[in-house]
Amino acid sequence: AGNIIVHNDPAQKAAIAFICIYIFFFASTWGPVAWVVTGEIFPLKVRAKSLSMTTATNWLLNWAIAYSTPYLVNWGPGNANLQSKIFFIWGGCCLVCVIFVYFMIYETKGLTLEQVDELYGEVSVAKDSIGWVPTVTFREIQDGKGHEKVEHEEATKV
After folding, report:
1. Closest C-alpha among 89, 98, 109 to residue 25
2. What is the pLDDT of residues 61-106, one digit of tens each?
3. Largest CA distance in the chain
4. Measured between alpha carbons, how far is 146 from 115 in angstroms, rounded to an integer?
């Protein structure tokens, strides 16, 4: 067990409360959303292998964080003695995640996987994906009209 160096009970209770709040918001937002994004971000041809790689990377990084945190937090020889200052590191990581999402994650709400592939092929900047409209809708694909519409649009462009 670790040593408690700060004997300020209200500060310790506040830290625990903020940790619980963080866990709640992480578990209801970024935690599960990361799995949805990785399920949509890769082209259909390589999706299975890519998901295997992202899952392995996720587990590896989770292990690295769990392994290194006691050494970063604990006091004594061979430890970093960061204690509660470790949250500045985690906060910095969250800031990097927010910036990454804003600039790199495309809006794919309401799109089929095929339309997501089309989106990635046509839109080069993630923030421009918000107003993007696919050339073929899901209903047209179901009705078998999608291929005819694409051919007609390509013919009128020339």
Report:
1. 98
2. 999 999 999 999 988 899 999 988 888 998 898 899 889 989 999 9
3. 76
4. 12
**CA–CA distance, 89 with 93 (Å, rounded to integer):** 6
Neighbours of 127 (CB within 10 A): 13
For 33, 41, 51, 86, 118, the CA distances from 46, given in Å and listed in that order, are 20, 10, 9, 37, 15
11 vs 9: CA distance, rounded Å:
5
Tokens of 108: 């794919």
**Mean pLDDT score, 117-135:** 90
Q: Is the pTM higher than 0.85?
A: no
- By residue count, the chain amounts to 158
